[in-house]
Design brief:
The complex is a heterodimer of chains A (202) and B (272).
Chain A: E1 4-9, E2 12-23, H1 28-36, E3 45-48, H2 55-70, H3 81-89, H4 95-102, E4 111-116, H5 124-134, E5 138-140, H6 155-161, H7 180-199
Antiparallel strand pairs in A: 1-2, 2-4, 2-5, 3-4
Helix pairs in contact in A: 2-3, 2-7, 3-4
Chain B: E1 26-30, E2 35-40, E3 47-52, H1 61-84, E4 92-96, E5 101-105, E6 109-111, H2 112-121, H3 139-157, E7 160-161, E8 170-173, E9 197-200, E10 207-208, H4 212-229, H5 234-247, H6 251-264
Antiparallel strand pairs in B: 1-2, 2-3, 3-5, 4-5, 6-8, 7-10, 8-9
Helix pairs in contact in B: 3-5, 4-6, 5-6
Classes of the chains: A alpha+beta (202), B alpha+beta (272).
């Protein structure tokens, strides 16, 4: 069994989101091959945990994907709601590129798995059981607010993908000594990234 | 004809698109183009602003869709650009241009208009603000004006013109925090309400331009708005302009241009 945290988005309470976090994953190659074969049992969004800055950074594309999948007619640009999550994370419109940057690669060791409960059969138990069986890694418990989701991130990699440079960095606050600087910087980055993801491809 | 009941404005209800159709929303303001609600987004404790541009029944549906889409996108792009370049504006949290909604970060605080009103209510008098008071007891209000000038300068510096600068579209962010409204204790000491980040809001008419003309018109509109909401505050507004002129290269040229604009009015082309 893997530890699964269920998130519920405001405005979409009927479609909870199951999220699991793993570290020291050893069978990334296998998981990736299942994705490439489009094995229906492996219909998850497998995301490289080093690319997720904050919980909101993950919930935003998830919301968008759900929103687009549920509108009539569905407005997804990729094949499934789960692939749409990965696609929406990337700032440009290339799905392959999105998978290379944010999706699971052969060298991935920390992994976030997202499953949308689009049908009632998908519950946190079923997801936990299946993921516990197939992912070889250490399951990490996610807190109620998902704080753990940003703990493995590599800020420099994220900065590069979104071409942030120094943008979003608080300026003239060098004298901060109480350790809030990092939190503040992440908040600034997060708000820029959410904006970039919102206006992408429009 | 008289038998057809015509609903008054108070009966006009807008049906919001999914997923907001049946959500609890609080209407905060309504303009000619958009409705502004307060709600939550992504997590139940992230307060946010929902800006919805309802379809206009008198326009052709296709044209209406295109106009709504174009205007919403323009606004969102400008906001993201500002945020990227470090200008203090509400962050864009979500967007659906086809359905006409935009979700923005919640800014806690009041606008400049109400802040100045409060200052007057608490005994401030515009007429008594001489040059000598800048370091005295009224230091705060001068500092406040300089902050406004610098903020406007910053926006112009990155190549954005707001298009509708008024005292209501400038917010003063009061609490640093996560937006949850803290219960105000009546016995709490008076907060320094004049100090706080100046946040520009409502970029619905914003354009990306670097022309002095457009920048000067922005300032002119703000000047007129100041004169309308706070008559007698001319001397204070001069401080806004002074800070603006010093805030970025090219600020002085804009102030020169402003003199021309004052003489002829907002519209150069006399069209529309």
């Amino acid at each position: 069994m893997a530890a699964v945290r269920t998130f519920s988005l405001p405005h979409y309470p009927d479609y909870p989101i199951q999220v699991a976090l793993f570290k020291d994953v050893k069978n990334a190659t296998f998981l990736r091959s299942q994705l490439l074969e489009a094995n229906a049992d492996f219909d998850y969004a497998f995301i490289d945990a080093t690319m997720i800055l904050t919980p909101l950074h993950l919930l935003h594309p998830t919301f968008l994907s759900l929103h687009l999948a549920l509108s009539t007619p569905p407005r997804l640009k990729s094949r499934t709601p789960h692939s749409e999550i990965i696609f929406r994370l990337h700032p440009n419109n290339n799905i392959g590129e999105s998978y290379r940057k944010f999706g699971i690669t052969d060298t991935t060791t920390s992994l976030i798995a997202v499953k949308l409960s689009l049908t009632p059969e998908i519950t946190s138990e079923s997801v936990a059981k299946h993921l516990g069986d197939v992912v070889e890694g250490t399951s990490v418990e996610i807190g109620e607010n998902g704080e753990q989701l940003g703990e493995m991130c590599q800020v420099s990699k994220i900065r590069k993908v979104y071409k942030l440079g120094d943008g979003g960095k608080p300026k003239g606050k060098k004298g901060v000594v109480n350790g809030d600087a990092d939190v503040d910087e992440r908040k600034q980055m997060e708000s820029v990234i959410l904006g970039i993801m919102s206006v992408k491809g429009t | 004809m008289a038998s057809i009941p015509t609903p008054g404005p108070e009966y006009t209800t807008h049906i919001l698109p999914a997923p907001f159709t049946s959500s609890p929303l609080t209407l905060l303001a309504q303009g000619a183009e958009a409705l502004v609600y307060r709600t939550t987004f992504l997590t139940p404790n992230t307060p946010c602003i929902l800006k919805y541009r309802p379809p206009k029944p008198y326009r052709h549906p296709i044209l209406d869709k295109r106009l709504t889409r174009a205007r919403l996108l323009a606004e969102a792009r400008v906001l993201v650009k500002c945020r990227r370049d470090g200008v203090k504006v509400p962050a864009v949290l979500g967007l659906d241009a086809d359905q006409g909604w935009l979700v923005l970060e919640w800014v806690e605080g009041g606008n400049v208009r109400s802040t100045l009103d409060r200052w007057v209510k608490e005994g401030g008098q515009f007429e008594k603000l001489g040059e000598s008071s800048k370091d005295g007891e009224n230091k705060d209000v001068w500092e406040f004006m300089r902050a406004i000038g610098t903020s406007v300068g910053k926006v112009h510096d990155i190549g954005v013109c707001h298009g509708d600068l008024t005292t209501s579209n400038l917010m003063v962010k009061t609490t640093e925090g996560h937006g949850q409204a803290q219960p105000q204790k009546p016995s709490a000491p008076a907060q320094p309400y004049l100090t706080g980040d100046i946040i520009l809001i409502d970029f619905g008419l914003a354009t990306q331009t670097v022309q002095d003309e457009d920048r000067a018109v922005d300032l002119y509109v703000l000047e007129r708005a100041f004169a309308a909401t706070h008559p007698g505050a001319e001397s204070l507004f001069q401080e806004v302009l002074r800070a603006y002129g010093e805030s970025y290269r090219g600020g002085r040229a804009v102030l020169k241009k402003l003199e021309d604009v004052r003489l002829r009015g907002r519209k150069r082309s006399m069209l529309g």
